[in-house]
Write the C-alpha cells for this entry.
Amino acid sequence: MFGTTPRRSLLAAGAALLTGALLAGAAPATAAPTGPVPLTAAAVGWGELPSGGATPSAPGSVQYQDDTWVFVRGTDDRIYLNRFNGVTWTGWSEVPGGGATPSGPAAAVIGDALHLVVRGTDNKIYTNILATGGWSGWRELPGGGATPDTPAVAADRQVLHAYVRGTDNKIYENTRAANGTWGGWAEVPGGGATPSGLAATTAGTRVHIAVRGTDNKIYAASRSRRGEWDTWKEVAGGGATNDGLGLTSYRQDVYLLARGTDNRIYRNNRVDNAWTTWTEVPGGGATSAAPSGVTEGTYLYVFVRGTDNKIYGQRVAR
C-alpha cells in the first residue's frame, strides 16, 4: 500500500546540531536470545493493522480525541497514519503536506492540537500540527538542530518538549512554550549519549525520557516543570537493547517498551516512583525496531514493526 516510488526531500539539505557517551558494558534483555519470532497473526495476541501497510522504521502512536493514532514511515519514506476509534481502523492515509522522513515519526497532544514531529531527509527536525482547521503543513522546528535518528516529543499541560539524538550522539531538548515560541536546542544535563533515537512521555508533573546507552543498557532521566533534571540512572532489571525505546504513561505511572537483544518485545513499569522488572509482552512476537505504546483506561496498546515489516498491535493490561 505504501509503494516504492522515490520521494523528494522534506525541505532542503544539510544541517548539523552540536557535536559524546553514556556508560559502558552490555547485558541480555532478560531472556537469552532464542532467535526472532515473526510477528504474524500466528503470534497469539498480535494483530496486523488493517489495510496492508509496511514500514522500514519504528511506528509512533498517540491518543487524540479519544482515538488511537498510529503513524509510520512508509516504504516510500512518506508519512502515513491509521486511526482506531475503539471499534474499527480507518486504514492508512498519507499525512497531508507532502513530507518525507528516513526515520520513524513521533507525536504528542496539547489540548485539541496533535503535534507530529519527524526527522527530515536533510536531518533537520520538522513539525506538522493537526488542529480544528486541519493540518498546518510541515515547518522546520526553530533552533537549527539536526538528528540522525527518530525524535521524541512529550506534552506537559500547554508546553511541548522535543528531544533528539544530536549528530554528536548527545541528547538535546527544545521546548515550545504555551505562546508557541520555541526556546532553542540545549543539551540535557548529565553528559548522557545514545546511538539511537530516544523516547519521552509526561507522568504527573515530570517529563521522563529513556535512552539506549552506548553500552546498550537502558537509562532514564526526568525533569520538573522548572527545568530541573535528575541524574541518569539505569532502569532496574538489567535489560539491554540494540534500538530506540517506547514510552507512555497513565497519571503518575510510566510504561517503558523495548526491543530485546533477542528481538522480542519487553516492558518495564515505573510505579510509585520505582521501576519494576523486565517482562516479555505476551504473544511471542518479535520486532526489528523500537516498539511504541499508548494507554487508555486499564489497557496498554503496543504497536511494532514486525520482522516482515508489516505493522502489528495488541492490547494488554496496564
